[in-house]
Design goal:
By secondary structure, this protein is an alpha/beta fold. The protein has one domain (about 5-230): NAD(P)-binding Rossmann-like Domain (Rossmann fold). The protein has 10 helices and 7 strands. A 7-stranded parallel sheet has the order 3-2-1-4-5-6-7, with helices on both faces. The longest helix has 29 residues, at about 100-125. The N and C termini lie far apart (about 45 Å). The model has no long low-confidence stretch (mean pLDDT about 90).
């Protein structure tokens, strides 16, 4: 799949990886790029720079994201590529994080994907073609130190993406799962922290990640990793989960000692 002449919608498109994907899609000749972000100024700035369309939407609100996606299709035709990229990383220890913060993470990191799928999938199935990209994190595969709501919600995104690929691939729907290690975005405020040095892996720029995403589109490849070391870590976890957990506990102790 190439994005040239495609209608692309990117949630969380006002900054970070989402912004880089919007810029990349526009440079690659997308027919229209819809930049979706709850920060209206950020969405407008990106859209203005690439000649796209800005949409200020709270993606955790089903009514808002459904109305927006239906309006985009009514105005511009079928959505070819939906990138469920919006995410937040607030929260921490499960005992200290308020329940409403857990709910906010769940709404934005998981349910926004579900809401968007429900809005665009019927049209894609009717056409026999559609492309849906999910941004999770290696936190959704290997977990994340220090942030239980984030790790939990990103695990759910991985499960949803796998289910979509299994269920709808043979009906023409291509699913892509981006599971990055560390990326220089506002969600990684301190690239020099003990966690970043020890657990984030090689830290990439958003533009590098956007290139990796388009490479996966060209191959119609499900899993998008940002560094080869991620594959090694995944295999270590799978091959010896007890040893992996022991190592992760040691890493947690080192991070705690550095704080």
């Amino acid at each position: 799949m190439e994005v040239r002449d495609r209608l692309c919608v990117v949630t969380g498109g006002g900054s970070g990886i989402g912004k880089a994907m919007c810029e990349r899609f526009a440079a690659d000749g997308a027919r229209r790029v819809v930049v979706v972000d709850r920060a209206a100024d950020n969405a407008a700035a990106v859209a203005d720079a690439i000649g796209g369309q800005a949409e200020a939407v709270d993606v955790g609100n089903e009514a808002e994201i459904t109305e927006m996606l239906e309006r985009v299709e009514n105005d511009h035709g079928p959505i070819d590529l939906l990138c469920n990229n919006a995410g937040i990383a607030s929260g921490g220890d499960p005992l200290a994080t308020p329940i409403d913060e857990w709910q906010k993470q769940w709404d934005i990191n998981v349910m926004s994907h579900v809401y968007a799928i429900r809005a665009v999938l019927p049209s894609m199935l009717a056409r026999g073609e559609g492309h849906i990209q999910h941004t999770a994190s290696m936190a959704g595969i290997l977990t994340s130190h220090g942030n239980a709501p984030y790790a939990t919600s990103k695990h759910a995104v991985v499960g949803l993406a796998e289910w979509m690929s299994i269920t709808y691939h043979d009906q023409g729907i291509r699913t892509y799962l981006l599971a990055p290690l560390g990326v220089r975005t506002p969600m990684l405020p301190d690239a020099d922290s003990e966690w970043a040095r020890s657990a984030a892996g090689p830290i990439r720029d958003p533009e590098e990640v956007a290139q990796q995403v388009t490479d996966a589109f060209a191959e119609e490849r499900f899993l998008i990793l940002t560094d080869e070391i991620a594959q090694s870590w995944m295999e270590f976890k799978t091959n010896d989960s007890e040893k992996w957990l022991k190592g992760m506990r040691k890493l947690q102790a080192r991070i705690d000692a550095a704080d």
